Amino acid sequence: SVNPDLASERQTASFSVEKLTALLDGGSEQTRIRRAVVEAIESDPVFSRENQYFQTQNERYEAAVRKAVHLQKKMHEMGWTENGPEYKYIYRALSGDVAFLLHRVFMRSISVLGSDKQIAKWIPLATQHKLIGSYAQTELGHGTYLQGLETTAVFDTATQEFILNTPKISAMKWWPGDMGRSATHTVVFAQLYIHGKCYGIHPFIVQIRSLQDHSLCPGITAGDIGPKMNFEHTDNGYLLLKNVRIPRENMLSKFCEVRPDGTYVRQGSQQINYFTMTTVRISLISDEVLTPLMKACTIAIRYSVVRRQSKLKPGEQEAKILDYQTQQEKLLPQLAAAYAFHFINNYLQELFNRGYREIQRKNFDMLPELHALSSGFKAVITQHCTAGVEICLRACGGHGYSLLSGLPSLYTKILASCIYEGENTILLLQTARFLIKCFMAASAGQPVPPSVTYLAAVKHGKCPAKNKLDFLSPDIYTEAYQHVAVRLTSNTAAKLQDLIQSGVKKHDAWNQCTVQLVQAAKAHCHYIAVKNFAETVEKLETKAGIQKIMKHLCDLFALHGIFSNTGAFLHDGYTSAAQMDMVTASYLDLLDVIRKDAVPLVDAFDFTDKSLNSALGSYDGQVYQRLYEWAQKSPTNQMSPAYERYLKPLLHNTLSKL
Amino acid sequence: SVNPDLASERQTASFSVEKLTALLDGGSEQTRIRRAVVEAIESDPVFSRENQYFQTQNERYEAAVRKAVHLQKKMHEMGWTENGPEYKYIYRALSGDVAFLLHRVFMRSISVLGSDKQIAKWIPLATQHKLIGSYAQTELGHGTYLQGLETTAVFDTATQEFILNTPKISAMKWWPGDMGRSATHTVVFAQLYIHGKCYGIHPFIVQIRSLQDHSLCPGITAGDIGPKMNFEHTDNGYLLLKNVRIPRENMLSKFCEVRPDGTYVRQGSQQINYFTMTTVRISLISDEVLTPLMKACTIAIRYSVVRRQSKLKPGEQEAKILDYQTQQEKLLPQLAAAYAFHFINNYLQELFNRGYREIQRKNFDMLPELHALSSGFKAVITQHCTAGVEICLRACGGHGYSLLSGLPSLYTKILASCIYEGENTILLLQTARFLIKCFMAASAGQPVPPSVTYLAAVKHGKCPAKNKLDFLSPDIYTEAYQHVAVRLTSNTAAKLQDLIQSGVKKHDAWNQCTVQLVQAAKAHCHYIAVKNFAETVEKLETKAGIQKIMKHLCDLFALHGIFSNTGAFLHDGYTSAAQMDMVTASYLDLLDVIRKDAVPLVDAFDFTDKSLNSALGSYDGQVYQRLYEWAQKSPTNQMSPAYERYLKPLLHNTLSKL
Questions:
Q1: Is A320 touching B (CB cutoff 8 A)?
Q2: What is the mean pLDDT of the segment spanning B402-409?
Q3: Nearest to B378 by CA among B451, B297, B280, B292
């Protein structure tokens, strides 16, 4: 039975939840396929996550391997293939709690970087799991700056082998997933040396464990890097190489080859490598970043209509905490952001697909824009969603702090997304570099990519809003965001030029502007997200209340951003203080409007109870019963040796009854 | 040997680290005593935290009990007493990783709320650990709003007993520390009923476990609430009471008594109860909030001068990451905040001591101000420091995400401080209520407490700064902070009045202002923190460079606050856009100045390697060696059953060597 405090929230929905779910999925047929995958996975006890919060790191790893192996069987059984429509829903249905994810990266890197011959040899073996692959790039002392990697691969013409070494402790490979305990092979990135000359970073296939007994191969030292904030299921590993010899054929040679005599040959363009990073950054947004925020919103909002605390009106019963303005102000902007980023993700996917088609036609023109957008949005979305999950956690008070709420593990996992696949600050600076370049080009009247043409149109007007309702007009707020993005970019470009003209060296000048460059990059992405949300709403069907509620969310997303960054909008007087007061009034009004549909809006995300894995967030809202039942199963409710060892001797002299 | 990249940072300190440590400790004699306690604790293997990151929740609990029991012996051995000068350093030296902390709260509540007879009976038993106490207030469905607690205590005149019940699942006691597995007794807060009439919440001593065999007493259901985000060492518990009978004498009766015939007698003032909460909120700031931020700064800053990544100047070696402006902008404001909050903590302690003396003379006049300041600063400091620790964690990239960095557990622990002892938003609203009341009083010409007299002096001037150096004048920035606090308070007071005058009911009007009330409360605390830092610097001795470096930190703290909240200062034109650009320039300049002393400034916190328990933060900066050595000891480097069960069957068909 559904908690009546939750049930009542669903009766007053202003829109069709099922229609909104279909919109999010990209059509009702997609919804049907997704639900079938979820049902198949969740009804299979091997994939259960029931005891997850009670398990040790070792137990989590073992379960992840068990699931990965079972998944092969399951896919065969269900007739799911890697190219089928079900495939993309499997990982989400498993909540990512599965091993051998790096095995896929291993395969992808061979497919992309390997010669036809290499692909023919390795891909079938990997597909059949006759080996387990990993991907060893990051080192103890080196991450983002690939040129700094210290691992070496020296070509020995006499034996036609590469000799691999990690010459210093900082050169040790560190972090690669699946490498700590599982992998038999890995792709090692190393500085290639031929006849004493360094040719830079190249990829090499290296066997690290025996296929007979899994013992480490000669010259290999490897193991697990130990406990992390999350990812207990993944065996992130370390790897030391000492004079490890591999055949010449093991250097991935689609783009570069070493001939038997040591001649180095570079063939084809390496630009495609940047495209691979772009792919990864875009692909992680949906499963690794948006899904956790959507889950956190679902948990926190359902809990906030079930939890009653203090009285809002004297004489009445205690109020649902979602009726407090401060609680609305914590949660509803996160909900709006989840929708905003869902739509920007669609935009990025489309752009990416277009870019991919162009690249296949050997046209690389879109690459810089794609790189800038994927870098900037990876940073902005991971940052925003991580903060959002944390807000949801805190908004649930003490119960949010219990692992059983599901919120701590959502938080500790999403946090990693700010760090992996490019540290966020560095990514934002890449976007900023693109912005500055385009701004200079646009100022000089040169053509620039579509997403930055607005930089050319610097206007010195004022915001035309006359009352608080004007701020519910997408034109008004989109223009305000655009103005801020242009101002921050142009001001920073000017500061940079001033510094250089005053004699500061270029790299020093750049460093002295980086705090402001990061602001400009964020403002650019924020502007595009707002604009895209508004344009998406415009195109929605007006039926079933969908467009109306999406418009409210779009307004909230935009006004929350202004309310939280008032200085950026006030700075040059584009927005006046009186207008800022209108923004505040409209923003606070909107909270009240969206609060009425808050539960239907999270229901539309369509998470099952098993996928939420939360005592606070279940569909029926029976929070207290579930917390109690679940806590009783905790291993901490078994007898502890502490009683016999320490408590009994302490207490044994006391009277039996005081 | 010290990593040369770290060693060089210490050679150029602009001040005496030892003198600054003494300043932080409150004198060199205090430093001596603290170091002696730390030495005694850290040299004792029973107190070791070496394997902490590898332990399960059960193992952590057992270790915490072992340490608590051993601590009694140690104190005796060392001649440390609860009233001695060493006492306050013990908890810090243990990093809080010890059981029976609620036993102390049990004792304190009896001392404060119990009659002389009750104190005489229970305190000696508790002191000798002949029982283990806990404190059962929070319920599954009720936290902050004490009047909503559902547990009942019905007086039975026939047997002269109270009959205790948790009538619904939401009435179950939930969260009390030491109660899940250890406690034999607890203080239960329950609604008192006599002859069918409710007299509100009262405290009762209830035995929950046998002193003979630790089995649960009749009518008691109790256990551990399971895994949490941190606090694995604490057995937070649940408690169900079913017709549990306790003698009339077990109601703590200093302020209220039930006579044998059922007559209810209230005696003395209960105002002192609020003072108890004030005490707790102030006392937690130092150990639970400031220490973790100081540790996080130490770890992140030392790491940032050892880690080199990318090139700042072409042709040079990779740069220390602390040389990047963006890294400075992440870490140095946190360092400044740690100092700012250390000094405001001293201020609050002094105010509290003064209040305590007044209360002993039956003068309760200072209570409202003390309550407002302790609530507001508890919220502001926990919030700021939690965010600060998270920034430190992220600033260390991947390695910050490893538990071995120490940062994840600092973060997950400090986060709880935002929730316990009063949820932060609710506390800020209590401060805001005080501010609004005082503002109205001040506007009407009535006297108000010292910390809010500034509210009376509303000035409509403009910031007089003429160039960026003017913003290094404490008068200039303190005045700006004051102006913002007054504006936010007076504007919100006006909105509140307008709403009420337009016919909105008082409680609705209040709710509609809460988002802005929270802003006003934060601005008030921020202003006081800046003012106090500036006044503290003013009084410092000018010798040994201490005053100079503290002045820089004070400036940075103040300007960072303006830079991060530009809108608040720009809104009514008090600060102009041109002045805001001066703030930005001065702020960015300061980063460069403080960067030079960053390592000495964290060295002054004087944490030992054992207390940091971090592979990244050790005094010698041998980061990579330590990460590697430590990871090898992880239980994840033992053989996993996953190999025999899943990997071997998968791989056994493969060729032995590819």
A1: no
A2: 98
A3: B280
A68-78 confidence digits (pLDDT tens): 999 999 999 99
Contact status, residue A293 vs residue A414, Cβ threshold 8 Å? yes
Q: How far is B650 from chain A (nearest CA, A)?
A: 7
The dihedrals phi and psi of B256, each to the nearest 5 degrees, come to -140, 140
Task: Decide: B335 and B555 in contact? Cβ < 8 Å.
Answer: no
pLDDT tens per residue across span B260-295 = 999 999 987 767 767 878 888 999 999 999 999 999
d(CA A88, CA A71): 14
β-strand partners of A251: A204
Amino acid at A224: D
**Of all residues in chain A, what percent are helix, strand and coil, respectively (each to 5)?**
60, 10, 30
**A232-244 pLDDT tens trace:** 999 999 999 999 9
- The confidence score (pLDDT) of residue A76 equals 95
Domains of chain A: 129-267 (2.40.110.10), 462-597 (1.20.140.10)
pLDDT at A657: 46
* Residues of chain B contacting residue A174, judged by C-beta atoms under 8 Å apart: 398, 627
d(CA A56, CA A49): 13
SS (H, E, C) A420-432: CCCCHHHHHHHHH
Using N-to-C axis directions, what is the helix angle for A506-539 and B325-360, rounded to 10°? 80
User: Pairing state of beta strands A152-156 and A185-194?
Assistant: parallel
Q: What is the pLDDT of residue A87?
A: 95
- Residue B168: partners with Cβ closer than 8 Å, 6 or more residues away: B141, B150
Q: What are the pLDDT digits (tens) for B385-400? A: 999 999 999 999 999 9
CA–CA separation, A201 and A15 (whole Å)? 55
Quick one: pLDDT band at residue B657, thresholds 50, 70, 90? very low
Do B387 and A408 form a contact (C-beta atoms < 8 A)?
A: no
ipTM: 0.97
**Measured between alpha carbons, how far is residue B35 from residues A129, B29, B128, B621, B645 in Å?**
57, 10, 28, 22, 52
Q: In whole angstroms, what separates CA A500 from the centre of its chain?
A: 37
Length of chain A: 658
pLDDT value, residue B458: 67
Residue numbers in A near B507 (CB within 8 A): 312-314
Write out the two tokens for A238: 């370390």
Q: What integer best gives the mean pLDDT of chain B?
A: 95
Could you give the CA distance from residue B256 to residue B269 in angstroms, rounded to a whole number?
10
Assign residue A421 a region: left if phi > 0, alpha if psi is -120 to 50, beta otherwise? left
- Burial class, A287, CB count within 10 angstroms (exposed 0-12 / middle 13-18 / buried 19+): middle
Whether B622 has its CB under 8 Å from any CB of chain A: the answer is: no
Please write the tens of the pLDDT for every residue from B29-51.
Answer: 999 999 999 999 999 999 999 99
Alpha-helical (H) ranges within A79-100 are: 87-93
Contact present, B173 and B271 (Cβ < 8 Å): no
Q: Does A446 touch chain B (CB under 8 A)?
A: no
Contact A65 B642 (CB under 8 A): yes
Entry field: residues in chain B:
658
B196 labeled binding residue: no
Say if residues B240 and B167 touch (Cβ distance below 8 Å). Answer: no
β-strand pairing of A152-156 with A161-165: antiparallel
What's residue B144's pLDDT?
A: 82
Phi, psi of A247 (to 5 degrees): -65, 155
pLDDT band at B125 (very low <50, low <70, confident <90, very high): very high
Cα separation, B187 vs B179, whole angstroms: 11
**Residues of chain B contacting A65 with CB distance shorter than 8 Å:** 640, 642, 646-647
Asked whether the whole model's pTM tops 0.90, one would answer yes
